Amino acid sequence: MTNTAPSTADAHSAPGAGDFAARAHQIAKVYGRGDAQVIALDSVTVGIPRGRFTAIMGPSGSGKSTLMHCMAGLDSVDSGQVFIGDTELTGLKDKQLTRLRRDKIGFIFQAFNLVPTLTALENITLPMDIAGRKADNAWLDTVIDTVGLRPRLKHRPSELSGGQQQRVACARALASRPEIIFADEPTGNLDSRSGAEVLGFLRDSVRRMGQTIVMVTHDPSAAAYADQVLFLSDGQIVDTMTSPTAERVLERMKGFETGGRPAAPGAQEPGVAAR
Question: What SUPFAM superfamilies does the record tag this protein with (predicted)?
Answer without folding.
Answer: P-loop containing nucleoside triphosphate hydrolases
